[in-house]
Amino acid sequence: MNNMRRTFLKAGMATGTVAVAVGAGLLTPASVLAAWPKKAFETKKMDEAIKILNGSANAANSKDITVEAPDIAENGAVVSVTVKTKLANVENITILVPENASPLASSYILGKQTDGFVTGRIKMRKTSDVIAIVKAGGKLMTAKKPVKVTLGGCGG
Amino acid sequence: MAKKKMKIRAWMTDSRATVKAILFHPMETGLRKDKSTGKAIPAHYITEVKCEHQGKNVLTCLWGPGVSKNPFLSFRFKGAKKGDSLKISWVDNRGESATTTATIG
Fold this sequence. Notes:
- The complex is a heterodimer.
- By secondary structure, chain A is α+β, with helices and mostly antiparallel strands.
- Helices cover about 25% and strands about 35% of the residues of chain A.
- In chain A, strands 1, 3, 5, 6, 8 and 9 form a six-stranded mixed sheet that branches. Chain A has a three-stranded antiparallel sheet with strand order 2-4-7, with no helix packed on it.
């Protein structure tokens, strides 16, 4: 059963087309607004996804970012995650799950009036950290929270 | 699912507007199989959500298949007042879209 699931996941990944042109145009945050970064969502490497979205993958740990998620998620299909930060000039908030087939779950581009606060619900395949990347004032900062998943939520 | 594509609630708390929204969408990853046929259920998920306050963009969400079914979204922003309009619109990977406007109460 588990074996079948592996091959199935692989097949699903291979059929996804990669829009190189879209990826190439995504080096500046401003252009992220213009197109959905397909490549960032399809990559299996977390660093690559962060790089496509933010231009760099070097994020420093920050105590000013709080990731709120349950310690134990009974249902991996619905894991409520809140990212809060006191940092000023927050440009975007990205939520990643390294153990998922595609680590990038969601990315939020904040307007000037918007607080550093976003809540969403994500899927988690298995027990993993939930990583938040915050870009504020041109700097990348990160924080994480481990979540134990008792029932995976990405199908298969 | 009913025809309604979105539910938005927005209200003022002190100087900030709090927005909570539920978008009704299957959010299929494309990895799940239909149990009766054994075939993969094609991917169908929201890719982009735009939230505008009085025509000005306050939040853009870029979502992938890793977002839960019937996604929930909550955020806060400054500079709003009671009675202002808040427009949320989304587009999915099949090009379907929906727009709903709410009033901040």
